[in-house]
């Protein structure tokens, strides 16, 4: 009996020529011969006054968020790949209409995020111009982000303050916030905070580069940190269970805090501005919030770093470097809403282009607005 020979499969992927679909509506106008009244047929009910359809409009929004292209590059891409010529003003108008359409699902997502048990938060500079008088003082704007398990929301603020942090989290947030040591989050009870160890490692590394006792103490603290994360990685990969993790980390925690206390006890002279004085001040700050260093060991499911929020902000940072900020308050809000939608949908494994198209249709033609929340 002959042995069956397996066939060879070879696939070639190609992109067919893309031609935009242009639908022309001709509205007849007539003048009454008796009263000279001019009448014109209306557009069909399912056709917007805009000359750009829902799918093209959704793509324009996608190119300003999931793919942070400048207006000029968005124009060039649409022209070269789709054969669609579009002005910068039209791009701005489309994104503003999308922003209006996304108001409801984004507000719903923000309310949902504020009810989650854990939130990773961060902020970055996001300049806003004064094209519409929204920021007449020319102050630097800020992009705030809150990352939860299934929803990520962005909010544009004009300040980097405690009030702006409350605007992001809400006044009644009851979960645990993972953040850096920025004072804007100090309104939260210490038991609701987890300080980011990635930021702490960077601070300890900087201390280790200082001369004398600073380097010695920093080396000791970094060594303890490495032991801590070695235990954490073993729990993450299933090598040890949760009780073993807590038990093995307890002596590391005690020694870490004792080392901080030794630095603080050595002290520094009043008004001293030496590198050693900076080291002592950092250790003092850590001791004041030492309970917040270990929250991740008390509650499973909390990461010890704020890397999730920093990754979420990366798109906003890239946009800022490309465009040097937004020119109006409305433009900044539009960017925040588009980033909320595209980042959340990527997080959930859903199609952002399809969502934006459905949101456009639901808002401008009527229908059910799609939701950013996960299915119950």
Portion of residues in helices? 40-55%
Mean pLDDT: 90
Specify the overall morphology: elongated
**What is the overall number of helices?**
12
Q: Given the helix and strand composition, which structural class is it?
A: alpha/beta
Please give the largest β-sheet: 5 strands, mixed
Question: What is the number of beta strands?
Answer: 7
Strand order of the largest sheet: 5-4-3-6-7
Classify the oligomer.
single chain
Structure explained in plain terms:
There is one protein chain. The chain contains twelve helices and seven strands. With 376 residues, the chain is α/β, with parallel strands linked by helices. Among the domains are: 117-192 and 307-348, no CATH class; 197-298, no CATH class. It has a five-stranded mixed β-sheet with strand order 5-4-3-6-7, with helices on both faces. Strands 1-2 form a two-stranded antiparallel sheet. The protein is elongated, with a radius of gyration of 28 Å. The relative contact order is 0.16.
């Amino acid at each position: 009996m002959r042995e069956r020979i397996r066939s060879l499969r070879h696939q070639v992927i190609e992109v067919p020529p893309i031609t935009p679909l242009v639908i022309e509506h001709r509205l007849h106008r007539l003048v009454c011969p008796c009263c000279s009244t001019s009448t014109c047929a209306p557009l069909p009910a399912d056709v917007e006054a805009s000359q750009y359809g829902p799918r093209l409009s959704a793509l324009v929004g996608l190119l300003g968020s999931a793919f942070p292209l400048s207006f000029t590059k968005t124009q060039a891409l649409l022209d070269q790949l789709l054969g669609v010529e579009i002005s910068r003003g039209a791009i701005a108008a489309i994104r503003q209409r999308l922003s209006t359409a996304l108001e409801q699902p984004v507000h719903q997502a923000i309310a949902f995020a504020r009810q989650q048990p854990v939130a990773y938060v961060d902020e970055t500079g996001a300049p806003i111009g004064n094209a519409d008088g929204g920021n007449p003082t020319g102050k630097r704007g800020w992009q705030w982000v809150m990352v939860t398990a299934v929803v990520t929301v962005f909010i544009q603020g004009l300040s980097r303050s405690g009030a702006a942090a409350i605007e992001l989290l809400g006044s009644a947030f009851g979960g645990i916030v993972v953040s850096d040591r920025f004072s804007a989050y100090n309104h939260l009870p210490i038991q609701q905070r987890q300080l980011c160890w990635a930021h702490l490692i960077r601070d300890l590394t900087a201390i280790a580069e200082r001369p004398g006792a600073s380097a010695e103490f920093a080396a000791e603290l970094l060594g303890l940190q490495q032991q801590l994360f070695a235990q954490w990685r073993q729990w993450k990969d299933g090598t040890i269970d949760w009780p073993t993790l807590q038990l093995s980390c307890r002596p590391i925690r005690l020694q870490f805090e004792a080392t901080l206390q030794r630095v603080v006890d050595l002290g520094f002279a009043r008004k001293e501005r030496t590198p050693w004085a900076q080291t002592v001040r950092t250790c003092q700050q850590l001791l004041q919030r030492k309970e917040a260093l270990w929250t991740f060991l008390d509650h499973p499911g909390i990461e010890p770093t704020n890397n999730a929020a920093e990754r979420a902000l990366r798109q906003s940072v890239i946009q800022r470097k490309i465009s040097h900020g937004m020119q109006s308050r409305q433009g900044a809000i539009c960017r925040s809403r588009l980033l909320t939608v595209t980042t959340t949908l990527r997080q959930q494994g859903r199609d952002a282009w399809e969502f934006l198209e459905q949101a456009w249709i639901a808002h401008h033609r009527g229908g059910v607005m799609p939701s950013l929340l996960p299915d119950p």
